[in-house]
Every structure is written in C-alpha cells, then in structure tokens.
Amino acid sequence: MKIDDTKDKILTVAEKLFSRFGFHKTSMDEIAKIARKAKGSLYYHFASKEVLFTEVVAKEIYNLQNNLSLIVNNENLNAAEKIKLYLIRRMEILHSAANYHETIKADFFEHFDFIDELRIGLDIWEKENIKKIILQGIENGEFKIIEEIDILVDVVIMVIKGLEIPFFLQNKYEIFSPYFDSLSGILTTGLSK
C-alpha cells in the first residue's frame, strides 16, 4: 500500500472514531487497530493525536471553504442571493461536521490550543469572503454604502458563530433550519438600498 493510501486510511478511520466517541475517548491504539495499521505507522504520518485530530478538522473546514467558494465566486448570483446561500449552505455543511462540533464543545470545557490556528484561519477566510459579497452588492447598487464594513463583517461572523452553539451542541438545527431563509433575509433586507 502506498504511503498516501495509508495516510488516507488513517484519516478516514480517525474521522469516524473522533466523530463517534470524541477526541478524548478515541485512542491512537484504537485508530491503529481499526485502520489495521501498526501504531508506528500512525506516528509516522501524525506526530500526535492532536496533530491527527487537527488534520481531521482541517478536512471538514476545507470542505466548507470549497463549497462556500462556489457560492462566493458564482457570477450568476447577485449579492443578496450569495449571502442567503452562503449562510444556509454553511449551516448545512457544519451540521454534518461532527469533529468541528467537538472543537466548539472544547471551548466550554477546555481549550484545544492546537486547533486555534485552524479556527483563526477560517475566521479570516470567512471575513474576506463575506466582505467580498457585500462589496459586490455595493458596487452593483444592490446594497447601500457601508462606512464601517469591517465592523459589519465582524458582527456577521459573531452572529453566525453564535448560532453554532444552539444549532450543533443543543441539537436545535432541525427545529430552526426551516427558518434559515427568513433569517438570512433579515440581513439582506438590512443591507438593501
């Protein structure tokens, strides 16, 4: 088996085990056993359980970014449509990102320092892309001119991240998901001329 295949197998197994049992209840021994790899093979590819978990969460974040980029860069959508689709799709993707949920839980009980860089990177990426959509709306005359656009973008990020707790940790996603369209409409109505 090729080195890349071994690494992919380990990541796939780790993703399933972490999402089912959580970071703390998943051991490297268990990952090695289920992946049918020697424990040394795990440590060859991933220096620690933290590094492996970070890679698993990174895959979920890259999936999120790739899907949201399709919306942000879609030239057939106006800015209001992009914001609406962005917010709805973001929540849909994160709903199934169980390991990302684990990082949210960690904020309450303990802090996963090893994930900070990844989460900060996501925040920066989202700020740039939401700002890009809003600027498109301003340029097209769809949205009013906003003096403090960076502050607005920070608030939007705070609001959508604040929704992650009830949606994903308190299992309220199914209750509120039918209303995402209306919720996103509040934002776009506020931005509209």
Content-based structural category: mainly alpha
The percent range for strand residues is: under 5%
Helical content (DSSP H or I, runs of 4+): over 70%
At CATH level 2, the architecture of the largest domain is Orthogonal Bundle
Summarize the helix and strand pattern as letters. Answer: HHHHHHHHHH
CATH homologous superfamily caption of the largest domain: Tetracycline Repressor, domain 2
* CATH class group of the largest domain: Mainly Alpha
How many β-strands, per DSSP?
0
- Number of spatially distinct domains: 2
Q: Tell me, what's the shape?
A: elongated
Report low-confidence residues grouped into runs of 5 or more. none
Mean pLDDT: 91
By DSSP (H or I, 4+ residues per run), the number of helices equals 10
As for the CATH topology of the largest domain, it is Tetracycline Repressor, domain 2
